[in-house]
Structures
1.
Amino acid sequence: MIKLHDLAPVAGTNRPKRRVGRGTGGKGGKTAGRGTKGQLARNKVKAGFEGGQLPLTQRLPKLRGFANPFRVEYNVVNLDVLTQLIEKLTLETGAKDIEVTPEVLRNAGIVHHKGLIKVLGRGEFNKKATIHAHGFSKSAQSAILAAGGQTVVVPLPFGDRRPPVKGNALANR
């Protein structure tokens, strides 16, 4: 059985660092791989110096992270906002069974006229209503069902595939 103290690198894999500038007897003598004369041969140049040209580190913009062009973004609606909307709709229409669809939310000005809708669980919900949305958090779904309502998941417009790429014609091609 091999033991830890028996382990050693394969012969020839760990080569020592070449010591240059130690006389003309071996490889790396005399100019030590720096060429002849000039600023670079005399060890007076800072790392990244490009002879007065604006250095690469200054030419490039700061790294600002990565934007996923396939990210699915939702317009968020919380339960307390839905409760207020349902109360308003029952006063206006007088109906007992209220259906809240994405179109109703858009017409009420609660969400943007484009985009997907997700219901989140902030606030109290005690109205019996059918809520249509593209997504529900677990807390929101359980609160709606506990109040005697229904949740209907609206299918995503791009199906089970990834969403279309955001950005210009050159984005992620």
2.
Amino acid sequence: MSLKEKIMIKMGLITPFRYKADDVVIARNVSLQGRENMYIGAKTYIGENNVIYAGKAPLTIGRYVMTGPNVTIITGDHRIDLLGEYMRNVTNEMKLENNDQPVVIEDDVWIGAGAIILKGVTIGRGSVISAGAVVRKDVPPYTIFYSHENTRPRFTLQQIEEHERLLQEKYPDDFAG
């Protein structure tokens, strides 16, 4: 952490991640809100102009994840059912339990440009989310996701086993303990 970052943290201008690997790359113009509820794994790249918001629920981004430009990831939702209150004035304390739900992006996921990941979603290991996709439900591991009605496997089961074996041989430290 640079001296400038340490000073900004002490002044309360920025909040450090709960966990952050040194080899995470965060491109220009990225908005990270709710960093105290965020975990970003090693060797992850966050693309330009991403908006990443962890409300009351946590956001976990695994290792070796890549996001294209203009990706949005949100763990929360607004309450829209309150009579006599402007939606803008609804606070976290006024939210219902289901308004915020965790988002988990497992290791080795690629999220294409302009994709939107909404609350309560787990994106499985090795998956690819196409540009412009809106993800509202879980995506199984090693899936190429275009929409909830249009997905296909990235590899066959035999290829997944071979891929995992080769990764373990090439990067044994990633699979240790």
3.
Amino acid sequence: MKMTRKGFTLIELMIVVAIIGILAAIAIPKFADLINKSKEGATKGGLSSIRSSLQVYYGDNEGKFPTSDDANDATHTKSLYCLVQNSKYLSALPVAKVPGTGVTDSADVVAEIVDAAAEPDNAGGWFYYDDSTNNVTWGNVVVNVTKEDIKNAYLTTTSEPGHVYTAWSTF
């Protein structure tokens, strides 16, 4: 009588497990990087929506960006909060997620600068230039972080002496 073999040998199973392990070792870091890229993309999208609502505000108010005088709500003294009052321009300020920088995710307007020479300070959140006397920077909003983005892009510009713009602030 002839014996037929059913199933896999131990060595075949070990080879399959080793191949799966190698594939997992390659794939897991890629997936972790995708999560950070999606957070960065959400922040850049949020930055775009704030800038768009600022432009609509500018058009509605005859060439005037929001200033700290426009935010008369006692709980929201920063000028960008006038964009979310009554949900006219934004329903809420988006969260600035800056993965890999050690900065806490925040939707706060951390800095509202009336001095054009001021720079972001890594506090997270948003950084708004509220200097109506400087037409170059007035109304600009950037992510309040000085570290590189996921691609380690670090850009400088000479358009504003003293300013160092990171890839976070150039979008």
